[in-house]
Amino acid sequence: MNALKTTTTVAALAAAFALAACDRNSDERTAGERLDGAVASAEQRADEARSDVRRESAEARSDINTAANQAGDKMKDAAITTKVNAELARDNDLSALKINVDTNEGRVVLRGTAPNADARDRATTIAQRVDGVLAVDNQLTVGTQG
Q1: What is the per-residue pLDDT across 25-63, written as a single tens digit (0 to 9) for each?
Q2: Which fold has domain 24-142?
Q3: CA diameter of the chain
């Protein structure tokens, strides 16, 4: 029975030493080597974070520029609409109150009524003369204004 206990103990010790030897992977590095590895890893993560921030900043700038351009376009269209309405109001035959002027990307649409065909055609000419107008879609109908 003692021989069996001794053999079992020796086998257990041999297994423990074998497992300990297998478990020695990178822990044999010096403290300085481990510190260098940690610093290198931290620097890599910091570089990745800086790259992410740069990319997201560029995307944000692009989004801001797009929004600013769209707002600028809307303001230009509103100014064109105002100018066309003002010019139509100066014409004795055309009433700005009867003509709806819509502008989108420099394209003007005229809706409503004109008292006669000449006034209808004049509305197109008036709108085309306004700075910034790229095209005029005259949908005015000829009829009575009242």
Answers
A1: 545 788 888 888 887 888 888 888 888 888 888 888 888
A2: GMP Synthetase; Chain A, domain 3 (3.30.300)
A3: 127
